[in-house]
Design brief:
Elements lengths: L1 H23 L8 E2 L5 E2 L4 H8 L4 E5 L1 H4 L9 H11 L8 E4 L5 H9 L7 E7 L2 H5 L4 H18 E10 L15 H21 L3 E3 L2 H5 L17 H15 L2
Helix pairs in contact: 4-10, 5-7, 7-8
């Protein structure tokens, strides 16, 4: 009887040991962690684990520089931004883009108003104004439209969503601007960008300068696509990396 009791006691201790050992493995860093896509992620940073629990959403608003005139879809800066984020352990859904070549600020306002939205977004970017400058629209009109756009953006982002204002590239540095007054174009672009930066500061928004990258195109032809005006996928990649570092890191 005593021997049977002793054997039973040993078995119980062994079972408890196995159970405790198994339980401790649930928090082991070597254990796989599953994302919402059921992909196994191993040895990821904490932000990677958090992001894969719920992929983030991005709404990109703008003009030809956002829709990526002259490049493939995967070369657009929002698409490359999502890829850069993924490579840094942060999972985004495919970005939604509301933009069209030639759009000025009021065209974008109309574009937003004519679009259907079924959800709000974690991140919203705004890159607009080059066509206001190109068509000699006034700064006052531009600034009034920015205020209207911000109202719409605030209605489209989540309560804790983040908004990024992106500077206007200097198209005068492209081959297209070779026979134009590049100094005047650059001065006007700076004026519009100063307005954008002030707008971002006043409203507590993040701001990123991609203009200086665009100005390198005057000496680096590979930064411009075949239309001699718009950025190439290579320039958009540089934007995406800088935008990630300013916006997410």
């Amino acid at each position: 009887m005593f021997r049977s009791y002793k054997i039973l006691k040993i078995n119980l201790v062994f079972i408890l040991f196995i159970a405790c050992n198994t339980s401790s493995n649930l928090d082991d860093e070597s254990s796989p962690i599953y994302s919402t896509e059921s992909n196994i992620i191993e040895n990821q940073e904490l932000n990677s684990i958090i992001s894969n629990e719920s992929p983030l959403s991005l709404l990109a608003l703008g003009d030809s520089y956002t829709i990526g005139e002259g490049v493939n879809e995967e070369e657009r800066w929002p698409n490359q931004f999502v890829q850069v984020a993924y490579e840094n352990g942060i999972d985004f859904l495919t970005p939604r883009i509301i933009a069209m070549t030639g759009w000025k600020t009021y065209d974008l306002i109309n574009g937003i108003e004519s679009s259907n939205f079924e959800k709000k977004y974690d991140y919203v970017s705004l890159l607009i104004g080059v066509n206001n400058q190109f068509n000699s629209r006034s700064i006052n009109e531009f600034e009034d439209d920015l205020d209207k756009l911000l109202i719409k953006i605030n209605n489209l982002k989540k309560k804790d969503g983040s908004v990024l204002i992106i500077s206007i590239p200097d198209w005068g540095s492209s081959p297209y601007g070779e026979n134009m007054d590049r100094n005047q174009i650059s001065t006007e672009i700076n004026t519009f960008n100063n307005s954008l930066k002030s707008f971002a500061n006043i409203n507590g928004l993040k701001y990123v300068d991609v203009t200086e990258i665009s100005r390198r195109a005057i000496n680096e032809s590979n930064l411009i696509t075949s239309d001699n005006l718009h950025p190439s996928g290579l320039m958009y990649l540089e934007w995406a990396k800088k935008i990630f570092n300013v916006w997410i890191n």
